[in-house]
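Researcher: I'd like a candidate sequence for this fold, 440 residues long. If you have to choose between options at a position, lean toward the conservative one.
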């Protein structure tokens, strides 16, 4: 390690915080923009929600490639390019004179930029940490929640003062520039600059450690003990590639768990303001629902990430899913602001906690060498389900005239995800191998 050089990993983690602050701050402001766009142009909310759903689907799918590009070219180039594309997409949206332009800007160009944020940032951070991986990913993820707190009120003010076109353009340009500048802080991994995960010195990193690993058996996984020469030690025999992970049943169990929770995860963000308005609250109080989710998400990421470093990370996910299930029940039966805000905060706590732990959980099972490609595949598959939720919620609203069925369905989906989480083995190092990984 370079003597006297501060550990760069924490700078990478905080750079990830600011990248997610920017991109999710803009994304979570869409609910504010949508009402103004619909009122000004006369376009139906259903079409605008379809554009938003297409945006989520597109950036989720493309994340499979941006994860691989991050592994190949490094996060700096990927995130900087994404900054330009994200700004360009929202600038096209701000100038939209037809629904076709809305879809081009929001569902075609902007997703290319958005896909260059969450996966590259988290995949890079898990390479920098092992023992404190949960804390680091919690810092990165909290940026998205902080953006959800700060950005929607700013967007609402900009729309009120200058109109929706100027508001979107200002946020696009400022966000794009700041994201590009922040990208310069990213470095692929500690080894590339002579450092070690968690900032350990060479003598500590080389000291043998006792770690748990899982061995495949016909009846499932059993815990054994192995010697590791370094924290999160990997070599060509132990580092999982994305295709190898894809063939593991553990991958598909995690996929099912997150697909079930992701399918409804953006419903509160896309419909929270409209739901509160339907209960009779003013636009200002309604916007507070999104900010409440942001406050809860910020706390959830800060708490759950480091907590997962101390306990079984799988159990941290279970706790988050249980709270998320209850939060949707609370939203569904809300009639006043107290329960609605409390449920929104609880949703933020659970959603923020599970998302913060997710990349660390994946790295625990499959290692950090190919983290970009593996996390990208998860995000592209399970994350794509998130695109369905907001649009289906709009269709249910049109059919039933209320949000009761939507939030009840969300509670059931999270309960099923919780049940699936119980089937996961305890995280640990997977066995050494010479060809393909175990499939049990």
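Model: Candidate sequence:
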């Amino acid at each position: 390690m370079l003597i006297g050089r501060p550990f760069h990993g924490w700078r990478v983690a905080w750079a990830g915080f600011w990248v997610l602050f920017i991109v999710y701050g803009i994304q979570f402001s869409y609910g504010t923009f949508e009402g103004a766009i619909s009122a000004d142009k006369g376009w139906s909310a259903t079409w605008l929600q379809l554009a938003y759903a297409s945006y989520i689907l597109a950036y989720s799918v493309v994340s499979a490639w941006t994860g691989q590009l991050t592994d190949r070219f490094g996060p700096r180039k990927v995130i900087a390019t994404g900054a330009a594309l994200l700004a360009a997409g929202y600038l096209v949206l701000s100038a939209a004179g037809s629904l076709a332009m809305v879809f081009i800007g929001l569902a075609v160009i902007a997703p290319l930029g958005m896909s260059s944020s969450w996966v590259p940032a988290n995949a890079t951070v898990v390479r920098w940490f092992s023992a404190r991986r949960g804390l680091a990913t919690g810092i990165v993820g909290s940026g998205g929640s902080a953006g959800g707190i700060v950005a929607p009120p700013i967007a609402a003010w900009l729309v009120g003062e200058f109109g929706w076109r100027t508001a979107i353009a200002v946020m696009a340009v400022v966000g794009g520039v700041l994201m590009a500048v922040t990208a310069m802080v990213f470095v692929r991994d500690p080894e590339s600059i002579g450092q070690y995960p968690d900032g350990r010195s060479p003598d500590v990193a080389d000291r043998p450690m006792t770690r748990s690993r899982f061995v495949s058996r016909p009846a499932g996984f059993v815990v054994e003990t192995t010697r590791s020469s370094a924290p999160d030690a990997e070599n060509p025999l132990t580092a999982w590639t994305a295709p190898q992970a894809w063939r593991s049943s553990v991958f598909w169990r995690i996929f099912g768990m997150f697909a079930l929770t992701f399918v409804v995860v953006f419903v509160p963000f896309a419909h929270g303001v409209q739901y509160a308005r339907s209960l009779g609250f003013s636009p200002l109080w309604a916007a507070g629902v999104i900010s409440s989710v942001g406050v809860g998400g910020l706390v959830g990421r800060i708490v759950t990430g480091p907590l997962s470093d101390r306990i079984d990370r799988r159990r941290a996910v279970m706790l988050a899913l249980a709270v998320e299930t209850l939060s949707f029940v609370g939203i569904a039966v809300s009639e006043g602001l107290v329960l609605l805000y409390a449920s929104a905060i609880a949703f933020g706590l659970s959603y923020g906690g599970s998302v913060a732990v997710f990349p660390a959980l994946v790295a625990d099972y499959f290692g950090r060498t190919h983290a970009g490609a593996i996390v990208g595949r998860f995000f592209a598959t399970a994350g794509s389900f998130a695109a369905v939720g907001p649009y289906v919620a709009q269709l249910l609203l049109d059919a039933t005239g209320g949000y009761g069925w939507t939030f009840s369905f969300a509670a059931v989906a999270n309960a099923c995800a919780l049940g699936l989480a119980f089937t996961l083995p305890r995280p640990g190092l997977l066995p050494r191998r010479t060809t393909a990984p175990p499939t049990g």
